[in-house]
């Protein structure tokens, strides 16, 4: 059973992100950041779901999110990302990229660094989070931002360097590796760029045949970096294999309206989450498929006395292909709607450990515990 | 002229109304624009004014962060209610509606709590006054809503009506809790001067268990009154409450119990304890005793319910209004100026829904309460749909007003959409007019607005949004983005315009921008002729770069012969043919070369006339052009000769 709390926050939420937890600890995330949009005065705010002092014996207890601090943000918060435990980088609709610092001692936020007019309108910022150890502090982080103006900017410390331009609107960006990034744009293309190469051309372009449905979001598989999921205007979920094919491996009909975000679960990558303009938040579960496949492999080998390691091997093999093989016709993919019926857009979601947080246009933030169960 | 329902309020605007000036105004969607103006005695000169503009708005509440939660949360309930309508079965209908009503109330209560928290934490005196004013309005809303729920939605029958009214009273009078706290926390509660007040207050609300507990304390300590206490306790215990039994059964029991009370009073059982005697009189519903204890009740409606409890426990909906009016009169005699809240409650007791709505519209300065309550009551089929003179019924009118208010807010506009959707008559028109006026600051906002319009097949608004975005992109010199927007809107005219810009850019700079888009136009290319040409022309360049010369040549020629290319562009196309003509192998056949030649002639013929008129200015231009044409003619002639030779050779 999942448990859920909703909090009305008097501002439309455009982004929600968990603060990363140290990889070594088994700690669950307890602080998230939220950004607002379309308000007269937009804000970046930090919320805590950990409750101080009181120890609750019931497992299912979920505390109401509590506001830690907030700070004015010029323009709509288009994207928001934690650099480390203390620093948050935001992209603004005024084209500005800002780094905020969270002072945990007195619970305040302050502006640490900013790049004015990085874009005409900044859509998205990312930094290369290492896939195996989320939350590792980068000493000299490279931040990439993309904008409505089609530019890709790369920032290092405090010098600004414009890397590339491509003219059609870029909606989202992720790091594939530390030197390679992937972008999606409004004519339905997925592009791969190598930051080391000069020039204005992407190294690869992927697109759907004869389709130019704008793509809005993308995420890559946390352990298999060639598996990438994207979502677009028609609410369709596409899974791509960027090693091989120029076209998506599978197309899954999903939401009724724009898909705003897609996320693999960072430690259980057989689970995928998507949210959409139509007000739904979906959980895609491919793990059932994984469970079935080994038995098939076992049968195929006809070996009754399989050693333990062999079973483990077949497990990991099937894990590799869980998403690439997920064929909707096989019906192995389980989909759950996680939110009670609502009509207003779910703009953002983030999932970490046992918790999921999402923000909506109904000015509410939902925190879900154990969304996988 | 219609009669006014209330005296219009006066507002003082700082900076306006100076001596010798006038005030000009203009209507906005939800606000007034006021400015200073002066009419000179003779209409010659413009007189100087302060040049200050003031906005006056009536719905400040929209901008309160606490109330925004109310708007958002109730939006969800509203939408749920409209949906449930479709799948309703009449059996569970009433229970469903009561549940919805309770949901609305719990949202209100949460909002009150929040407001209370905010009000007590602020130090600003002005702010805190404002908060407590809003708080009092909210609690009035909750009080009224609860009463309406009992009277209209539950439509409680005799017996259960009073049970519900008692709950209502208990929930909304906090006075008793204050007394209880005061008494029970004192060192010796029994000696406290308000000890008996507390018991009486409990009895007035029929909270017998609590009253008896206190009584037991008294009995345990004071031996002299122990027997009296026991009798009173017995009476309190035995008081019949309406539950599962039939109405006649209940009435019989009630009559019996009442007679017993009366007997005790007449026998003077309690004569040595005036307090207990008073309680006994209360149990008999003696009006003057109840009036004596009016401080314990505080409000006339508490008095009404307490009196009914001990005189007419089986009161029905139809009877209650006559009691209500007289209770109000007795409770505050000589006070003719009634509070607005009293009027609302009185109207509710009279079961006059329209009056309730009207009174409340006057009291509050936002439409939330009346719109949602009316909608809920409308779902109970309580309104005879009598149309108002402005073309919609009351429910729709109030929803429209409320939603328009939301649309005037920079952020809450998205909520308004669903309200308009559920207004069958004018909702669509309102939505169309409002959607056109949403400021589109970012692409994401535009996408959201677009989705709203597309879902409702509002083609005109879709076009308008796309056009706005395309124009913005154009102004920022982002032709690709502009083109995508006009393709999305299927706006052929604008697509032509942008294609022309692309071609112009190409002529000036010799290369295309936004290749991504142009290369991937697909079927969208057919939107306008010019766009088709742009796509095909780019295709020609690609073929040429890929060294597919023959296909390139065929395409180039067909662009002109099929009249896809605009006339002004023909020379450029012909010049593009030049390198193909000069290739080592023959690419254009003789037939094709003839066609090219006729194209060239046609073009020069068409060009001649306008040139003559502006000859002087264009003389230099035309000399360059003439050289180009000469070069072309030469190349064409040479190619023709080569082609004839080659074709002749092949045939042999």
UniProtKB/TrEMBL annotation, chain A:
Location in or out of the cell: Nucleus
Q: Where do the WD repeat units fall?
A: 208-250, 252-288
GO cellular component, as recorded: nuclear pore outer ring
Asked if the record carries the keyword Nucleus, the reply is yes
Statement: the UniProt record of this protein carries the keyword Nucleus: yes
Q: Which Pfam families match?
A: WD40
Q: Which UniProt keywords apply?
A: Nucleus, Repeat, WD repeat
Subcellular location, principal: nucleus
**PANTHER family referenced in this protein's UniProt entry, alphabetically:** NUCLEOPORIN NUP43 (PTHR22652:SF0)
Q: What is this protein called?
A: Nucleoporin Nup43
UniProt source species? Engystomops pustulosus
Q: What is the lineage of its organism?
A: Eukaryota, Metazoa, Chordata, Craniata, Vertebrata
TrEMBL record, chain B:
Pfam families in alphabetical order: Nucleopor_Nup85
Where, if anywhere, are coiled coils annotated?
none
Output the InterPro entries linked to this UniProt entry: Nucleoporin_Nup85
UniProt similarity note:
Belongs to the nucleoporin Nup85 family.
Question: Cellular component GO terms, alphabetically?
Answer: nuclear membrane; nuclear pore outer ring
Q: Which UniProt keywords apply?
A: Membrane, mRNA transport, Nuclear pore complex, Nucleus, Protein transport, Translocation, Transport
Question: Per its record, how is this protein called by name?
Answer: Nuclear pore complex protein Nup85
* PANTHER family linked: FROUNT PROTEIN-RELATED (PTHR13373), NUCLEAR PORE COMPLEX PROTEIN NUP85 (PTHR13373:SF21)
Q: How does it assemble?
A: Component of the nuclear pore complex (NPC).
Q: Any idea where this protein resides?
A: Nucleus, Nuclear pore complex
Q: Does the keyword Nucleus apply?
A: yes
Instruction: Output the Gene Ontology terms for molecular function.
Output: structural constituent of nuclear pore
């Amino acid at each position: 059973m999942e448990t859920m709390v909703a909090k009305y926050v008097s501002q439309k939420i455009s982004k929600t992100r968990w603060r990363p937890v140290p990889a070594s600890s088994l700690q669950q995330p307890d602080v998230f950041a939220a950004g607002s949009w379309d308000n007269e005065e937009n804000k970046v705010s930090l919320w805590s779901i950990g409750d101080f002092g009181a120890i609750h014996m019931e497992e299912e207890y979920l505390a109401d999110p509590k506001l830690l601090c907030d700070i004015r943000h010029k323009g709509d918060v288009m994207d928001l990302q934690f650099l480390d435990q203390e620093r948050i980088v935001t992209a603004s609709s005024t084209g500005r990229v800002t780094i905020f610092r969270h002072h945990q001692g007195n619970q305040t936020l302050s502006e640490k660094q900013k790049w004015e007019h990085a874009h005409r309108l900044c859509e998205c910022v990312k930094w290369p989070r290492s896939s195996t150890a989320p939350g590792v502090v980068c000493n000299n982080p490279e931040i990439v931002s993309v904008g409505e103006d089609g530019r890709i900017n790369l920032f290092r410390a405090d010098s600004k360097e414009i890397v590339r331009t491509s003219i059609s609107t870029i909606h989202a960006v992720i790091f594939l590796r530390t030197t390679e990034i992937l972008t999606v744009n409004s004519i339905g293309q997925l592009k791969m760029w190598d930051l080391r190469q000069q020039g204005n051309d992407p190294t690869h372009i992927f697109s759907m045949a004869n389709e130019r449905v704008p793509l809005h979001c993308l995420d890559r598989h946390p352990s298999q970096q060639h598996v990438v999921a994207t979502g677009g205007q028609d609410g369709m979920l596409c899974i791509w294999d960027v090693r091989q094919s120029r076209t998506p491996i599978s197309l899954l009909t999903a939401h009724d309206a724009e898909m705003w975000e897609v996320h693999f679960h960072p430690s259980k990558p057989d689970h995928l989450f998507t949210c959409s303009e139509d007000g739904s938040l979906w959980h895609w579960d491919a793990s059932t498929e994984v469970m079935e496949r080994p038995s098939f492999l076992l049968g195929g080998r006809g070996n009754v006395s399989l050693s333990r390691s062999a079973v483990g091997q077949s497990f990991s093999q099937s894990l590799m292909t869980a998403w690439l093989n997920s064929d909707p016709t096989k019906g192995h993919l389980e989909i759950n709607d996680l939110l009670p019926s609502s009509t207003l857009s779910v703009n953002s979601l983030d999932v970490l450990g046992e918790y999921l947080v999402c923000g909506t246009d109904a000015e509410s933030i939902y925190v879900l515990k154990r969304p996988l169960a | 002229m219609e009669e006014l329902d209330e005296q219009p309020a006066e507002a003082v605007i700082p900076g306006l109304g100076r001596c010798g000036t006038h005030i000009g105004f203009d209507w906005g969607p939800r606000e007034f624009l006021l400015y200073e103006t002066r009419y000179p005695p003779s209409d010659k000169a413009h007189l100087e004014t302060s040049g200050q503009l003031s906005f006056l708005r009536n719905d400040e509440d929209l901008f309160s962060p606490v109330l925004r939660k109310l708007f958002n949360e109730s939006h969800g309930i509203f939408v749920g209610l409209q949906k449930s309508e479709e799948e309703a079965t009449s059996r569970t209908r009433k229970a469903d509606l009561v549940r919805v009503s309770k949901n609305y109330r719990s949202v209100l209560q949460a909002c009150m709590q929040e407001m209370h928290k905010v009000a007590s934490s602020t130090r600003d005196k002005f702010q805190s006054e404002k908060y407590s004013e809003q708080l009092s309005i909210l609690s009035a809303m909750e009080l009224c809503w609860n009463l309406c729920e009992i009277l209209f939605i539950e439509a409680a029958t005799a017996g259960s009506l009073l049970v519900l009214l008692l709950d209502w009273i208990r929930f909304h009078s906090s006075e008793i809790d204050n007394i209880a706290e005061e008494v029970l926390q004192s060192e010796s509660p029994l000696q406290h001067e308000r000890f008996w007040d507390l018991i009486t207050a409990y009895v007035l609300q029929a909270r017998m268990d609590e009253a008896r507990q206190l009584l037991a304390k008294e009995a345990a300590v004071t031996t002299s009154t122990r027997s009296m206490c026991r009798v009173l306790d017995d009476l309190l215990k035995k008081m019949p409450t309406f539950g599962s039994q039939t109405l006649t059964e209940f009435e019989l029991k009630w009559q019996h119990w009442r007679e017993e009370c009366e007997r005790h009073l007449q026998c003077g059982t309690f004569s040595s304890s005036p307090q207990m005697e008073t309680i006994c009189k209360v149990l008999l519903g003696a009006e003057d005793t109840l009036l004596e204890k009016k401080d314990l009740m505080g409000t006339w409606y508490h008095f009404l319910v307490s009196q009914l409890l001990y005189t007419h426990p089986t009161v029905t909906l139809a009877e209650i209004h006559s009691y209500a009016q007289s209770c109000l009169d007795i409770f505050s005699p000589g006070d003719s100026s009634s509070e607005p809240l009293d009027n609302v409650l009185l109207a509710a007791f009279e079961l006059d829904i329209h009056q309730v709505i009207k009174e409340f519209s006057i009291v509050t300065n936002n439409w939330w309460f009346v719109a949602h309550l009316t909608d809920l009551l409308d779902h109970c089929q309580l309104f005879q749909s009598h149309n108002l003179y402005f073309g919609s019924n009351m429910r729709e009118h109030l929803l429209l007003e409320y939603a328009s208010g939301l649309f005037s807010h920079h952020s809450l506009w998205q909520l308004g959409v669903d309200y308009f959707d559920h207004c069958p008559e004018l909702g669509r028109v309102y939505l169309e007019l409002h959607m056109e006026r949403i400021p589109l600051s970012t692409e994401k906002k535009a996408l959201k607005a677009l989705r709203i319009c597309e879902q409702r097949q509002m083609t005109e608004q879709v076009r308008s949004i796309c056009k706005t975005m395309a124009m913005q992109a154009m102004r920022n010199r982002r032709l690709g983005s502009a083109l995508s927007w006009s393709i999305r809107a299927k706006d052929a005219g604008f697509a032509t315009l942008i294609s022309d810009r692309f071609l112009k850019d190409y002529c000036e700079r010799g290369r295309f921008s936004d290749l991504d888009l142009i290369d991937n136009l697909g079927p969208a290319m057919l939107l306008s002729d010019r766009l088709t040409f742009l796509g095909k022309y780019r295709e020609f360049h690609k073929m040429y770069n890929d060294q597919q010369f023959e296909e390139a040549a065929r395409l180039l020629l067909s662009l002109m012969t099929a009249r896809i290319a605009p006339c002004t562009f023909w020379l450029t196309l012909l010049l593009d043919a030049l390198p193909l003509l000069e290739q080592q192998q023959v690419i254009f056949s003789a037939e094709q070369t003839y066609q090219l030649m006729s194209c060239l002639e046609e073009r020069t013929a068409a060009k001649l006339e306008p040139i003559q008129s502006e000859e002087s200015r264009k003389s230099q231009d035309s000399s360059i052009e003439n050289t180009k044409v000469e070069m072309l003619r030469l190349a064409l002639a040479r190619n023709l000769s080569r082609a004839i030779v080659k074709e002749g050779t092949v045939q042999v």
